[in-house]
Specification:
The complex is a heterodimer of chains A (210) and B (208). Chain A is of the alpha+beta class and 210 residues long. Helix content of chain A is 57%, strand content 11%. Chain A has seven helices and six strands; from the N terminus they run E-E-H-E-E-H-H-H-H-E-E-H-H. In chain A, strands 4-3-6-5 form a four-stranded antiparallel β-sheet. In chain B, a hairpin with a 6-residue loop joins strand 1 and strand 2. In chain B, the strands form three sheets. A three-stranded antiparallel β-sheet of chain B has the order 6-5-7. In chain B, strands 1-2 form a two-stranded antiparallel sheet. Chain B has a two-stranded antiparallel ribbon with strand order 3-4. Classes of the chains: A alpha+beta (210), B alpha+beta (208). At the A-B interface, strand 1, helix 3, helix 4, helix 5 and strand 5 of A face helix 1, strand 1, strand 5, strand 6 and helix 3 of B. The complex binds zinc ion (ZN). The site of zinc ion has 8 residues of chain A, from loops. The site of zinc ion (ZN) has 8 residues of chain A, from loops.
């Protein structure tokens, strides 16, 4: 036991942790001895997959913000709202707390996720000298807040079902809703497929060369 | 020194693969990875009977939460109500099927599967059903547990109901329905259930 250091990794002592049930297994095993799921020491393809999902999400973020996300008919007047104009309207009517909630969930969170994951993947791919501890903390935050983007889609679904009185008052979803749903799906997947152990491997290999 | 003797005394961080020596923990304390701060393990506080009670409460609330009206809109003398399912189907019918499916999965199907899955796991463990069939089912349920709980977004839906109320109060009078009350109960029961539940501890029942 004495030869364990502050940076010894599982792969150096021939062990790997099962990603389904967290049981320790020997690296030679192909399947976990407790839950029978496939084991892998590192997912080397996960970096590429994560990049692909992230870039697609970043592209879709543009239509999600430019096109209207809802359409409202109020006594014959048709109003199209983008994510941003909907929030601006809330600010005008003095509902600041709701505006802040929606701004955070629909604009800040997706943007932070895409920027954060880009920094993260760049740091792994190009071995940038950024503090690994800070990157990991950022990654945990991204994983945790990501789901809150669903808020706007829930609001749209309740509104569309509730506000449905013909020409007097009617609400319908608009094209940005699908783009926004895809952004949420793809960014969640990009964070999920990434094997974060790769980041720490790069740290080790960099230190070895010194 | 073989890897066998190390295996029982250490654990590996899921995020950075660091080897960490296991230590006994006082209850309520979590062990974090010293290098990347990921949660490594904690003392399990799974009470099987407590979770069973929470599961049953959640199941009772589940149907009314989804089928009773959550909101009522009064506009120029007419009244409209909606349920969670109608909300999801309304966007689906407008052609936004991706949004509709996302709402149905995260607000209705995933919470339902989560509750039934934990209930089945508890029953298998409580009544010591050790036959290969039940062991296989338990493995399967535990394998999907993390995925299902990630898809469960009751807390976000609850906030959405409130946001919608304030959003629409500009145009019409909005009232909360009976469904909202049941939904809040469902949310509370599920919240405590997920707090009590510990997937690594549940896996350890398979070691016995
Ligand atoms: Zn396993």
């Amino acid at each position: 036991m004495n030869n364990l250091t502050q940076t010894t990794q599982g792969k150096e002592i021939g062990l790997t942790s099962c990603h389904t049930c967290y049981m320790l297994n020997k690296q030679e095993q192909s399947h976990c001895s407790r839950c029978d799921n496939a084991l892998s020491v590192r997912h080397h393809h996960s970096l590429q997959q994560s990049w692909a999902l992230l870039i697609t999400a970043a592209i879709l973020l543009i239509p999600a913000n430019i096109y209207p996300i809802t359409m409202l008919i109020d006594r014959g007047n048709i109003r199209h709202d983008t994510i941003f104009s909907g929030i601006a309207h809330l600010v005008h009517t003095g509902m600041f707390p709701i505006a802040i909630i929606l701004f955070t969930a629909s604009i800040l969170v997706p943007l932070l996720k895409i920027v954060g994951l880009t920094v993260y993947l760049t740091a792994i791919s190009f071995r940038l000298p950024i503090s690994k501890k800070k990157l990991m903390l950022g990654f945990h935050i991204i994983e945790w807040i990501g789901r809150w983007s669903m808020l706007d889609l829930f609001v749209i679904s309740i509104t569309v079902a509730l506000v449905n009185m013909g020409q007097l008052l009617d609400a319908k979803p608009a094209p940005a809703a699908t783009a926004f749903a895809l952004v949420i799906l793809l960014t969640q997947l990009a964070a999920k497929v990434l094997d974060t152990r790769l980041l720490w491997d790069r740290l080790e290999s960099k230190d070895d060369t010194h | 020194m073989g890897s066998d003797c190390i295996k029982d005394s250490v654990t590996l961080c899921h995020s950075c693969d660091l080897v960490v020596t296991k230590r006994a923990l006082p209850s309520g304390v979590r062990a974090l990875c010293p290098r990347c701060n990921t949660v490594l393990y904690d003392t399990p506080y799974c009470s099987i009977n407590g979770m069973l009670a929470l599961c049953i409460t959640a199941l009772i609330c589940f149907t009314p939460a989804n089928f009773f009206p959550i909101l009522e809109l009064h506009f120029l003398g007419s009244v409209r109500t909606t349920t969670i399912i109608e909300g999801a189907l309304a966007v689906y019918d407008e052609g936004y099927w991706l949004v509709g499916i996302a709402v149905i999965i995260t607000a209705i199907i995933a919470p339902g599967i989560l509750i039934i899955s934990i209930l089945s796991q508890i029953l298998i463990i409580k009544y010591r059903l050790h036959s290969p069939f039940f062991r296989r089912q338990l493995k399967r349920l535990l394998g999907y547990q993390h995925f299902v709980s990630q898809l469960t977004m009751l807390e976000i839906y609850l906030i959405s109901i409130l946001v919608t109320v304030f959003n629409l109060s500009d145009f019409a009078d909005i009232f909360l329905g009976l469904g909202t009350f049941c939904f809040i109960l469902l949310f509370i029961a599920t919240l405590f259930l997920q707090r009590e539940y510990n997937v690594e501890h549940m896996w350890s029942f398979l070691d016995e």
